[in-house]
Design brief:
mainly alpha; 80 residues; 434 Repressor (Amino-terminal Domain); 55% helix; single chain; 4 helices
């Protein structure tokens, strides 16, 4: 079966969007980084690095899901 290359646009800075949106929705929820860390079972430093390293630090889908539940938003909001 023949295959052909299809062209897609992949945002190379998607983790920057995720990082900014985690911070945005955390602030809107009135939750501190320390509380978010405790709620999702991660360290304060981990949450701080996700928000302030602007995409240099990634996280698993599992962690992103937990963050979305704590912040009361769907996961797709992080990718906008």
């Amino acid at each position: 079966m023949a295959t052909f290359e299809r062209n897609f646009y992949f945002n190379d800075n998607i983790m920057v969007n995720v990082s900014n949106n985690i911070k945005k929705y955390r602030n809107l929820a009135g939750i501190t980084q320390e509380q978010l860390a405790a709620d999702v079972g991660k360290s304060y430093d981990f949450i701080r690095r996700i928000e302030y390293k602007k995409g240099d630090i990634g996280c698993s889908i599992d962690t992103l899901y937990k963050i979305s539940v704590v912040l009361g938003v769907t996961m797709d909001k992080f990718f906008e």
